[in-house]
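Entry 12.
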Amino acid sequence: MPSISRFALPLLGLMSPLAAHAVVDSRAVAVCASLADNDKRLACFDQLAEVDMRPVEPTAAPAAPSVLKTVPQPTAETSLLAQEWELGNDLKRNTFNFRSYRPTYLLLANYSGAPNYAPFINAGIVKTDEDKRLQHAELMFQLSFKMKLAEDLAGTPFDLWFGYTQQSYWQAYNKSASSPFRETNYQPELMAVVPVNFRLPGITARFVNFGMVHQSNGQSGTLSRSWNRFYAQAGLEEGRFTLLARVWKRLDGGGKDDDNPDILDYMGNGDLQASYRQGGHEFSLLARKNFRTSRGATQLGWNFPLSRNLKGYVEIFSGYGQTLIDYNYSQKSVGTGVTVDF
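Predicted 3D structure (tokens):
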């Protein structure tokens, strides 16, 4: 005779879901079993079996509170810095393509309240203070671009960029002096940019940039100015507002060939660049200061739409170092012209 457990265990397995939902009265089972009519007895058992067999949903455990706030990954639609520096695999646009870097613009009239004659007097170009051949109003333009040289440099998340910025101050309206270029500054640089994505109070950090930059005016003799720097920069943003915070360390200087040994006294050891964009307008601020000497500079900019790729531009400058030849000369200027995006 087969063991009872041979049949009981499978039966218990089949009955366990029912037992989890309801307990059937044994007296009702006995009543159904006592019915002589087969159809009625089957209907009675069917009635007893009408029990909800749906599985009971387990109660979900409450989610543990998040310690760190998740920051959404930046996209071209949500992050201006991510678009400008291609901070994501879906935003990368390959290497050796020209990209906009600093603003590219033309100031048709840049008016300085007090042009700096001293370097030209020392160079013998202007003989005396009365021989003032420099005009207050001049034409000024800036050309700036960057180009990615390598992506994921040596298996790291760093992208390597090359940047170039040129500023020229042209006495275009000074016909009596043959319209000379007063000053041109050349600034090539190499930048290693790594994306980051973490939240700070009120703002999100998007990238960190380590760069080396050379700046010179291409002159010789007493008009020569140049310096080299290593810098670290953080790029942050919140909505339409962006902030670039940079500190630098001069890599040369102090030798007998140093044209501007005290340049840090006037240019400081870092700068802040802020911008806000709204409805096609962009408002910008550049600020730097040496807190030991209390010298520095402030530059305000505003561009506004004129056509699809052309914008009007107004720039106001106050302080030291608008150009390298003026690094130790304080002046105020205002200019207006146009800027382009590419």
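Annotation: Residues 1-24, 64-68 have pLDDT under 50 and may be disordered. The CA atoms of residues 231 and 248 lie 4 Å apart.
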